[in-house]
């Protein structure tokens, strides 16, 4: 009798790391996200929330005094201009006649 032996051949390649699983107790969904570093360079990471870009803050202590002052001024809330109310007593309807279409 001829007995055939079966050999399982596993070929290893550079993609073989993709075969294994992530060793965690909980399998979470990760989304590809760009991280912008303070120096302006960017890297792609896996993040647990669906975001496109995460920008890391700049360390103000590394900036010059003038640049740090400008950045802090930009962070402050801008003052709102007070709206001037129009006087309805001086309303002239003839100013808006050119906007009305004739039938």
TrEMBL record:
GO terms for biological process: translation. GO terms for molecular function: structural constituent of ribosome. It holds the Pfam family Mitoc_L55. Keywords: Ribonucleoprotein, Ribosomal protein. GO terms for cellular component: mitochondrial large ribosomal subunit. This is Putative mitochondrial ribosomal protein l55. The lineage of its organism: Eukaryota, Metazoa, Ecdysozoa, Arthropoda, Hexapoda.
């Amino acid at each position: 009798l001829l007995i055939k032996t079966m050999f399982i051949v596993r070929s290893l390649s550079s993609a073989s790391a993709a075969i294994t699983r992530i060793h965690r107790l909980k399998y979470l969904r990760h989304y590809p996200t760009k991280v912008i570093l303070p120096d302006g360079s960017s890297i792609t990471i896996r993040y647990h929330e669906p975001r496109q870009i995460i920008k890391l803050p700049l360390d103000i202590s590394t900036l010059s005094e003038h640049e740090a002052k400008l950045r802090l001024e930009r962070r402050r809330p801008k003052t709102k201009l007070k709206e001037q109310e129009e006087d309805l007593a001086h309303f002239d309807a003839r100013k808006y006649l050119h906007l009305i279409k004739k039938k």
